[in-house]
Design goal:
Helices cover 35% and strands 24% of the residues. It contains twelve helices and 14 strands. It is α/β, with parallel strands linked by helices. Strand 12, helix 10 and strand 13 form a beta-alpha-beta unit. Helix 2 packs parallel to helix 12. The chain has two domains: 155 residues, HAD superfamily/HAD-like (Rossmann fold, 3-Layer(aba) Sandwich); 114 residues, Hypothetical Protein, Haloacid Dehalogenase-like Hydrolase, Chain: A, domain 2, CATH 3.30.1240.
Length: 284
């Protein structure tokens, strides 16, 4: 049973694969629905695996948007104050253990390591240049160019900033290599292990996830489960969806995410988030 429409006071939204249309842009219908919800007094919260500097400007420009959860819950930004108001990064000892594993398999499997620090994403310069020239990593050239900062050795860079790493994303070229690394990466003590798309693994701090960050924000604002609608498509969205009386999956969501949903909206290619907001919040 879904909550009454007038109970919803907060909408938590994943970005990629959920709120953003294919190609990573914000559709006009979705932007309009979000701004109408905000204008009516509903708090809209972005909850993304992206670091802050990778959030599209068109999202940050949504009129009335205030709170943005980034790096799978490692940070919360208050746009009205212009800074982070919450932080839950990986412990330094756990970070070093992850880097030990990644370093030991550099010549065995094909993958690229990305680390998020202070709201920015970093990767090896050699990987960055490869994507720009030949793109053997199968990532969007434009996305890498606009959201990633190249450094000479990203593992050494992460170790130098071990006290302030928000997220580690390991992006694989081959699925067999991804599965071969699953056991060693998922067993690192002091980390949370998840993924936000089909060809990566992500590691955050032991208590870092979208749900914990969102719970902190809900308590700060005074929102209860009955007042929350949460939309997602990937496993890293499940912790926040489980906080909501109205968990919504888009039609392109993974099966385990759809199984957790009270409502399955159309896909992100069909403005599924906008349609859910129009139905359950705007009463259209």
């Amino acid at each position: 049973m879904r909550p009454e429409t007038n109970d919803i006071r907060m909408i938590a939204l994943d970005l990629d694969g959920t709120t953003l249309a294919p190609g990573g842009h914000l559709a006009d219908r979705t932007k309009k629905a979000l701004e109408e919800a905000l204008e009516s007094g509903i708090e809209v919260v972005i909850a993304t695996g992206r670091c802050f500097m990778s959030v599209p400007a068109e999202v940050l420009g949504i009129k009335g948007l205030r709170y943005v959860i980034t790096s799978n819950g490692a940070k919360i930004s208050d746009l009205s104050e212009g800074g982070f108001i919450y932080s839950d990064c990986i412990r330094a000892d756990a970070l070093h253990r992850v880097m030990d594993i990644l370093e030991s398999h550099r010549d065995t499997y094909r993958y690229a390591t990305e680390v998020f620090i202070d709201g920015r994403a970093y990767l090896d310069r050699a990987v960055y240049e490869d994507v720009m020239n030949e793109n053997t990593l199968n990532r969007s050239v434009d996305y890498i160019r606009t959201t990633r900062n190249p450094v000479e050795d990203v593992i050494a860079f992460a170790r130098e900033h071990a006290d302030n790493v928000e997220n580690i994303s390991v992006v694989f070229v081959e699925e067999s290599h991804r599965q071969a690394m699953k056991q060693s990466l998922s067993s690192v003590e002091g980390t949370t292990f998840t993924n936000s798309f089909s060809y990566n693994w992500e590691l955050e701090g032991e208590s870092t996830d979208k749900g914990n960050a969102l719970r902190w924000l809900m308590e700060k604002i005074g929102i209860t489960k009955e007042g929350l609608m949460a939309c997602g498509d990937s496993p890293n969205d499940l912790t926040m969806m489980r906080l909501a009386a109205l968990p919504v999956a888009v039609g392109n969501a993974e099966p385990e995410v759809q199984a957790e949903a009270v409502h399955v909206a159309p896909s992100n290619a069909e403005d599924g988030v906008a349609q859910a907001i129009e139905r359950f919040v705007l009463q259209r």
